[in-house]
Amino acid sequence: AGLPVHFFPVVGSTNDEARRLAEAGAPAGTVVVADRQTSGRGRRGRTWLSPPGGLYFSVLLRPQLEPRLVALLSLASAVAVTRAVQSAVPGAGARVKWPNDVIAGGRKLAGILAELSADQETVRFAVIGIGINVETPELDPARAGGGLPPIGLRQLGWTQPRAEVLGRVLAALHRLLGGFEPGQLPAAALVAEASSLLAWKGEEVEVRTPFGSWQGRLAGLAGDGALVLERPGGARQSLYAGDVTLREA
Ligand code: BTN
């Protein structure tokens, strides 16, 4: 309610526009939305194909958070998208794919790219970029072979306008963060909610990290948002970053 929303028919990346606004002093809760992006970005330097008709937006936050806890912001965004979809299309089976994707029926519905302006001790601001597939997009050739196939809201039975999706996601995010103004993040409640919506709980997964790959049963989330794997033999291991894939039996 009352958020400054900047709409662009076309931008390079909504994350870049949000960053520009942040540098110019825009308040927390500023939202940048575009109908299409010419250089949409994904995680790990990937491209996020952004044809007209999808939903591409970025939210500016100015959290009082240690940099190591910033992953909670993208986790909150994944929960917000999942909640928004669940509230409108309950049968869609949307789930949070840790750390920051939303999937439905084993396909990718939304991705999140959090970018920070921070030094060792303080976060100046965070831009949370959210891309939600509306029509099911064509598979980006750069991603073919890796990642999950995409699915769009329309295919899940969503008939309302995109603005309705946006409104629901922003309302859910506002609730999960305890407001957009700087303050204490309600981390415990947020992680508990993420945990209850987590995809692949109890399944055998593989997690690829820059430091190597780990296999085990996905046990859940630790209080700080880390993914907990139960390794063969029963030892538990917390992981703070990585790409999770389901291991086919
Ligand atoms: C991923 O799954 O790798 C993350 C994709 C994030 C895409 C969104 S679309 C809005 C914002 N602007 C960008 O350039 N990227 C994010």
TrEMBL record:
Sorted keywords for this record are: ATP-binding, Biotin, DNA-binding, Ligase, Nucleotide-binding, Repressor, Transcription, Transcription regulation
Binding site residues for biotin: S13, T14, N15, Q37, R41, G42, R43, K108
Which domain of life does this protein belong to?
A: Bacteria
The enzyme's first-digit EC class, named in words, is ligase
Q: Which reaction does it catalyse?
A: biotin + L-lysyl-[protein] + ATP = N(6)-biotinyl-L-lysyl-[protein] + AMP + diphosphate + H(+)
One of the entry's Gene Ontology molecular-function terms is: biotin--[biotin carboxyl-carrier protein] ligase activity
Does the entry feature the keyword 4Fe-4S, yes or no? no
Q: Where is the BPL/LPL catalytic domain?
A: 1-181
Answer whether the UniProt record assigns the keyword Cell membrane to this protein: no
Q: What is its EC number?
A: 6.3.4.15
Signal peptide interval: none
**What protein family does this chain belong to?**
Belongs to the biotin--protein ligase family.
What does it do? Acts both as a biotin--[acetyl-CoA-carboxylase] ligase and a repressor.
What is the protein named? Bifunctional ligase/repressor BirA
Organism expressing this protein natively: Carboxydichorda subterranea
**Name of the encoding gene:** birA
Full-protein residues shown: 85 to 333 of 351
